[in-house]
Amino acid sequence: MKISIIGSGYVGLTTGICLAELGHEIIFMDNNKEKIEVLKKLEIPIYEPGLKELLIKNKDRIKFVFDIKEAVSDVIFLCLPTPPNNNGEADINSIIQVSIELAKIIKDKKTIVVKSTVPVGTCEKIKQIFGNRANVVSNPEFLREGYAVYDFMNPDRIVIGVDNDEAKRIMKNVYEKLKEKIIFMDIKSAEMTKYAANAFLALKISFINEIANLCEKTGANIKNVKVGIGSDNRIGMSFLNAGIGWGGSCFPKDTLALIKIGEKNGVEMKIVKAAIDVNIKQREMFSKKILNYYKDKAKIAILGLAFKPNTDDMRDAPSIDIINFLLSRNFEIKAYDPKALKNAKQIFGEKIYYASDIYDALKDSDGLVLLTEWDEFKNIDWNIARKIMNKKIIFDGRNFLKPPKDFEYYGIGLPKE
Ligand code: UGA
Q1: In angstroms, rounded to a whole number, what is the distance separating the alpha carbons of residues 77 and 7?
Q2: pTM for the structure as a whole
Q3: Domain that holds residue 278
Q4: Is residue 205 part of a domain?
Q5: Residue of 11, 115, 159, 201 to mutate, ligand 1, most atoms within 8 A of C-beta
Q6: Active-site annotation, residues
């Protein structure tokens, strides 16, 4: 099939390139000309493992255009950003504007697939713009940054909200090779599923963090408790890693937006509010743990800045709040991240030192603070660390490191050694 992708950001690129891998012909469109020029050279402006290789492999089936008039095909995916407005509500302006533009251009009936995360009822608004000249479909995405290609090719489910058989048939063709994973439902439920899924995962993490804080006070070990509860199939092991909490471009934005959808409909989303609250406090608590230890300013090596491993994404990363807190208490920061340094420079400017590798960060530091659990940090050579650090102290925000016994080690929700 010929498929257009409007919006060549993170979601659009991953979706389109993976759809090309499934055999479709893809036209990417973006209103950022520079981005389109970069993509034409087969360069990917984001870091996502495996995506570039897949783009190169499928390049003969992929086209990049700047003009929306060249981006019309029978199936059009809208992969546009829905950032929070001042209120915390999802701003659907760009989706509406593009729909108005498309509605002026298209001549015969199209299928418009809304991939962006949108408040319940948005597809209905889009339908009004197109009238009977388009099927409007909701197809929320559940890809994780860093594993997006794998997740696309091996989905737990593909949720598709439709309101007629023609749209259903077309979407079956789009996902022909993954069709046994499709769950069809009504459009509003598909829109709601996306928010409910992200909110549930976020609150699962906040829950385990709250239990971890209690473990720390009572002498229990959160790692054991995780296995103890996660082995119950009804609970499951995933998203039960205690730490400094969640960040990124999705959970913070979507939990807030869900609260706003609740407000508009007279339903207070109490559990989601509590999950956000716990998440903010988790960052504060970890920062204060470090401050309380040193009392006064210290020179700290931060390992990991991205909101999670395998991405260069710094959006709402816990590292931002933690570093800003430490800077405000006159700490000196030497930070290293395998991929996120460029983005971190935009945030911290000259305020911190950007280390070229792990040991450059550790050298002369009064302690190591781990904020992102990159695989690379598993292989720290503790013999070198021991020699180059001023003090052998570790604050592990992800319960990830296994240092030798002569290092003083503080994790999250772990008993005192
Ligand atoms: C999340 C969802 O997992 C995807 O299904 C969804 O498609 C995506 O949002 C989206 O809406 O676009 P993502 O933001 O890439 O994906 O990241 P996750 O892997 O879900 O991690 C989110 C945050 O939770 C990270 O900061 C991570 O460090 C934290 N986390 C995760 C924990 O603190 N503990 C855990 O056990 C798991």
Answers
A1: 9
A2: 0.95
A3: 219-417
A4: no
A5: 201
A6: 250
